[in-house]
Amino acid sequence: MLKPTAEIRLPGAVVLVTGGSRGIGAGIARAFLAAGAEVVICGRSTPAELPEAQGREAHFLACDVRDAEAVARLYAQISARFGRLDVLVNNAGGGPPGELATAPARLIERIIQLNLTAPLLCAQGAYLLMQSQAQGGCIINIGSVAGARPSPATVAYGAAKAGLLHATQSLAMEWGPKVRVNGIIAGFVATENAAAHYGGAAGVARMGAMFPLKRLAEPGDIAAACLYLASPLAAYVSGALLAVHGGGEWPLFLHLARNP
Question: Is 157 a catalytic residue?
Fold first, then answer.
């Protein structure tokens, strides 16, 4: 498979990746490190290992991105250490599956906080830094196919991600021309937890077979899209929702028609 990330260089750029210690976030962090950027990741607890690439390691700052005061402290630390912020990747998110009818109200609230409120708080803090910079900045929101089509069994998560996609396009209008805001509609990704989530290697293979490109995405696929959106190649791209889902899910009615 081609490695398009090698073609984009962002030497010295300061990049914040929320939830950047594992999975998609770690892949994004490694890609920006390989491109020459200074990468900050944040999370509630210090990870056992930090993402690294080409002998360089990400910086870690503790932050619960659902807490407005913690987010304000995070940006104060970034400003004091680096003097600027060029790219925010709003990656932190997720939530357990389950029927909404029996979901505790507190769980619904926490899922929406993590997947919608937190990215908005982080975007707000990033904007306050970026709008004062001559070069402006770029915000990339990691969305999901769950927010672009019905999402049974993950209703709160899908609704929050749908809200994030809507906010992406609205903020692109509010915050131009200094700050570009784009979103990625991520499909199913083969993270370190994919096998456990989809029923082992055989389950991952079955899932991958339903996409036109015949595999799940890898974290590097999402990372490559982030690098493009953060680079000068995307200087006139704002308010875009870039689908990175391997061509999309095969319609169920066709599967049923062909496999009675």
Answer: yes
